[in-house]
């Protein structure tokens, strides 16, 4: 962190473009599927041919309302589409259909988990509006090409108030937003495929000042890490400019991840005057109140509500609740493990270590990487019943990830059943004590520390499968009996 932290504070607002999970584009029937050969998902509408008319995809409206309700926005009963005019090769019509003065969703907020278990933080939203995506320029060594597959793909733009103060908080906001979009099945939030993109407006001002400094807009950040690094760099850069007695210039800057700096965009790469005007080819967007109510009724439980439930009802820590709820499928897996188990904490730890490790190491989706949740639950139930040890459960789980066999079969095949038979354990204890008469005498003479040595020896004799609680009881009895 900077030496000027006490003197300045950063003011950050984020604009996120999220691609909506529809099968077809926003104003035509072309597929939105990612990765098809260039210009195979195009038609006269999305390639901007003259004389064609756009037709609005109703599914887009439902998904955007779902996001708006989740973010506590007010849903406008009446909004309109506008033309945003600019000239660029990836924009075949010469304008983008967007929403300007009357967005679909206004106000609202995103609630972030509190830092270090503190109170949740609210980041207010300005608006959420609908728009179409542009195509993609591809620059080859000797020519430039345009792929219109992405042209007309539906987007929501989610614009925050400048309520964010640190790069870490910007990262937390984006993670929460992405998590919500995925819980809601509104967007897949895939940053690598460009379906979740972020621009940041960053300015600095003297700490305590009520007025905003001059901002720079940063583009081209395609991971959470890039966003945090780019904002941190930009804050330092602007503080240096101010400390040198100069003025920050309002401009658009690009993040260069290889050099770790932001640099100004050439002025020709963006235009200031979009000459917005209402789109004459589309009727106003009228939202029936019943549609909003229907969507409200069908809303799934969101990450913030789950976090609250995990801490208040299950007694998990804020950290555990946060890790478990970031991805809906992880959270669902955890909950599906619970029936029959009495210890929520152990199940939470199991998901955070064994399950997430198996997912990360295999590089596969949860469903393919680990056994069904009920089998993981069955394994933990055996630990609770002292049928197997926790270590044995880990061994079994790793095997189940590979074989796909159930818990019962795996534990039997690997011979992991724990021996709780007192007679067998007593016999092993007798043998160990008889083999170590000197140490037994020392223990009886007051060297309590030696107890662990005896436990280890008995466990070793029983191939690591004896129930440690029974070993402890029997050994203590035998050693004190003399
Ligand atoms: Zn099309």
Overview of the molecule:
The protein has 482 residues and is an alpha+beta fold. The chain contains 16 helices and 17 strands. The protein has helices at residues 58-70, 167-183, 224-243, 289-297, 303-312, 318-325, 328-337, 344-362, 366-369, 373-384, 390-403, 407-413, 422-435, 437-444, 450-461, 468-481; strands at 8-19, 74-75, 78-79, 82-85, 95-98, 105-106, 109-112, 121-132, 136-139, 144-147, 154-160, 196-206, 216-221, 251-256, 261-264, 277-278, 285-286. Strand 9 and strand 10 (144-147) form a beta hairpin. Helix 1 packs across helix 4, helix 2 (167-183) runs antiparallel to helix 3 and helix 13 packs across helix 15. The N and C termini lie far apart (63 Å). The structure holds zinc ion. Zinc ion is lined by residues 25, 28, 30, 42-43, 45-46, 152.
Label this structure with key terms.
elongated, 482 residues, alpha+beta, ten-stranded mixed β-sheet, single chain, 16 helices, binds zinc ion, 18% strand, three-stranded antiparallel β-sheet
Write the layout of secondary structure elements.
Elements: E1 8-19, H1 58-70, E2 74-75, E3 78-79, E4 82-85, E5 95-98, E6 105-106, E7 109-112, E8 121-132, E9 136-139, E10 144-147, E11 154-160, H2 167-183, E12 196-206, E13 216-221, H3 224-243, E14 251-256, E15 261-264, E16 277-278, E17 285-286, H4 289-297, H5 303-312, H6 318-325, H7 328-337, H8 344-362, H9 366-369, H10 373-384, H11 390-403, H12 407-413, H13 422-435, H14 437-444, H15 450-461, H16 468-481
Parallel strand pairs: 13-14
Antiparallel strand pairs: 1-11, 1-12, 2-6, 3-17, 4-5, 4-16, 6-8, 7-8, 8-11, 9-10, 12-13, 14-15
Helix pairs in contact: 1-4, 2-3, 5-6, 7-8, 7-10, 10-11, 13-15, 13-16, 15-16
Zinc ion is lined by residues 25, 28, 30, 42-43, 45-46, 152.
């Amino acid at each position: 962190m900077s030496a000027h932290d006490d003197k300045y504070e950063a003011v950050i607002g984020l604009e996120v473009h999220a691609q909506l999970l529809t099968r077809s584009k926003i104003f035509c029937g072309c597929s939105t599927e990612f990765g098809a050969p260039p210009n195979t998902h195009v038609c006269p509408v999305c390639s901007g041919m003259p004389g064609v008319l756009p037709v609005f995809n109703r599914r887009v409206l439902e998904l955007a309302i779902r996001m708006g309700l989740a973010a506590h926005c007010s849903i406008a009963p009446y909004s309109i589409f506008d033309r945003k005019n600019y000239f660029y090769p990836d924009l075949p019509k010469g304008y983008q259909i967007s929403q300007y003065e009357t967005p679909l969703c206004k106000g609202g907020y995103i609630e972030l988990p509190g830092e270090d278990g503190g109170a949740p933080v609210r980041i207010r939203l300005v608006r959420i509006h609908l728009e179409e995506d542009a195509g993609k320029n591809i620059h080859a060594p000797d020519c430039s090409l345009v792929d219109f597959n992405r042209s007309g793909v539906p987007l929501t733009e989610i614009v925050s108030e400048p309520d964010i103060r640190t790069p870490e908080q910007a990262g937390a906001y984006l993670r929460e937003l992405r998590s919500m979009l995925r819980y809601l099945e509104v967007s897949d939030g895939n940053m690598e495929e460009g379906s979740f993109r972020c621009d940041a407006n960053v300015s600095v001002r003297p700490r305590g000042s009520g007025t905003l400094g001059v901002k720079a807009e940063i583009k081209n950040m395609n991971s959470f890490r890039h966003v945090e690094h780019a904002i941190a760099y930009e804050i330092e850069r602007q503080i240096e400019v101010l400390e040198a007695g100069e003025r920050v210039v309002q401009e658009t800057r690009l993040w260069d991840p290889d050099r770790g700096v932001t640099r100004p965009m050439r002025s020709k790469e963006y235009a200031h005057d979009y000459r917005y005007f209402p789109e004459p080819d589309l009727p106003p967007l009228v939202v029936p109140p019943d549609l909003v109510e229907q969507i409200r009724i069908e809303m799934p439980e969101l990450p913030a509500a789950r976090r609250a439930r995990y801490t208040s009802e299950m007694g998990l820590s804020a950290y555990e609740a946060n890790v478990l709820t970031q991805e809906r499928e992880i959270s669902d897996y955890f909950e599906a493990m619970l029936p029959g188990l009495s210890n929520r904490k152990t199940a939470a730890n199991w998901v955070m270590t064994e399950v997430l490790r198996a997912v990360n190491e295999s590089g596969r989706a949860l469903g393919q990487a680990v056994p069904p949740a009920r089998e993981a639950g069955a394994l933990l139930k055996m630990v609770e019943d002292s049928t197997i040890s926790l270590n044995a459960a880990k061994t079994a789980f790793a095997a189940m990830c590979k074989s796909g066999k159930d818990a019962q079969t795996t534990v039997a095949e690997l011979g992991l059943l724990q021996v709780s038979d007192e007679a067998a354990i007593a016999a092993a204890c007798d043998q160990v004590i008889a083999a170590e008469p000197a140490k037994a005498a020392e223990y009886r003479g007051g060297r309590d520390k030696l107890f662990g040595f005896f436990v280890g020896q008995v466990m070793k004799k029983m191939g690591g499968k004896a129930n440690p609680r029974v070993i402890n009881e029997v050994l203590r009895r035998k050693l004190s009996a003399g």
